[in-house]
Each structure stands twice: as C-alpha cells, then as structure tokens.
Amino acid sequence: MPVWVRDYSWQQTDAAVFLSLPMRGVRVTQANIFCTEQYLKVNVPPFLFEAILYAPIDDISSTAKIRNETIFFTLYKKEVGMWESLIMENGDKEKMQRIRENAVIKAQEKADEEEKSKAVTKREHKKYALEATMKWLHKQAEARRAMNANFSELKDLNDEEKNPDWLKDKGKKMPYSECVA
C-alpha cells in the first residue's frame, strides 16, 4: 500500500512553479519521476505523489533535482500567470482519469518518436561509415595501381614474387646475415 506524499511545499512566480517533495529514508532516481504537460507522478516505494497540475507546463524545459532525500522541481508554466493552487481541484474522476491516460499516451508517443529518431541517426552513421570505408578502399586500389605502374621494369618477376605477403614470408625465412649483407 503506497504512502501518499501530502507534506509537499510549493511557491510560484508568473513564469514558474517551485515544488519540493520530501522522500525521507529512500533513494530517489530520475526513473522514479514521470512528468508531462499537466501530470506529475513520483513513485518511490513506499511513497507516491501524483498531481494533475492546475495548468499546463513546459515539460521539456522543466527540471527535477534530487538532493538529500528531497526532489526539487522547477516547472515552467506554458502561460504566464499565477495559479490558484498547484493541483487541479474540483475535477470529476472521469476527467482526472482522462488526463492521466492522455499523459501516458503522449509519453509513449514521445518515446516512439525518440526511438525512430535514434534509428534514423544510427542508419546515417552506418551509411557514413560505409562511405568512408569505400573511399579508403578506392584510395588503396589507386595506390596499388600506381605501385604496379612504377614497377613495370620488374616484368621478369613471376606473380608469386610480386605478392607482398610472399615477399614478407621470404624475408622472415632469410637468415639474418643475408639480410645485412
């Protein structure tokens, strides 16, 4: 059974709301916070705080800072003005449930968009890496052609003797005295 957090404090300016939520005796992480335009939920077992906000906020710019078992929110208002209260009051249960459900749906849509954006970025990085590899291979092929053109006077070598790996192995097999001489 959750313990509902009721001993919060809040202040406001025309542009922002400052909310302080005490979470005594538990470790809080960002994963415990769910915030959308009009809905805020903090679930840190056994504590639970849920608020249908009085008016919409800019959930992208708003912040949450965790210090000494307390969460400090800075919620930027979408419309400048003073709120009568932090939480929407006198709303019927159906309206409140609709706001909760819409918050979850919007959050899911946002997560899906971010996932798609990450996939596009990943594809672009792979494409760039492939293009860079192809350019490098093209340069390597050009260098080999240039080397082969420069050694046209070595026509008397057979294919095996022109192979760099064969030459490397041959060099390894040679006694040191022959290499220095």
How do you describe this structure in short?
The protein is built from 4 helices and 8 strands. With 181 residues, the chain is an alpha+beta fold. The strands form 2 sheets. It has a 4-stranded mixed beta sheet with strand order 1-6-5-4, covered by helices on one side. It has a 4-stranded antiparallel beta sheet with strand order 2-3-8-7, with no helix packed on it.
Structure characterization notes:
InterPro entries: CS_dom, CS_DYX1C1, Dynein_assembly_factor_4, HSP20-like_chaperone. It is found in: Cell projection, Neuron projection; Dynein axonemal particle; Nucleus. Residues 3-87 form the CS domain. Residues 154-181 are annotated as: Disordered. This protein is α+β, with helices and mostly antiparallel strands and 181 residues long. 43% of the residues lie in helices and 22% in strands. The protein has helices at 93-150, 159-162, 164-173, 176-180, and strands spanning 3-4, 9-12, 16-22, 33-35, 39-44, 47-52, 63-67, 70-76. It has a four-stranded mixed sheet, covered by helices on one side. The radius of gyration is 33 Å and the shape is elongated. The relative contact order is 0.10.
What value does the Rg take, in angstroms?
Answer: 33 Å
**Helical residues, percent:** 40-55%
Our estimate of the beta-strand percent is 15-25%
- Widest sheet: strand ordering: 1-6-5-4
The profile of the biggest β sheet is:
4 strands, mixed
Low-confidence regions: none
Principal-axis shape equals: elongated
Total strands: the figure is 8
Class from helix and strand fractions: alpha+beta
Determine the mean pLDDT.
84
| Number of H/I helices | 4
Span from first to last CA? 89 Å
Compressed to H and E, one letter per element, the order equals EEEEEEEEHHHH
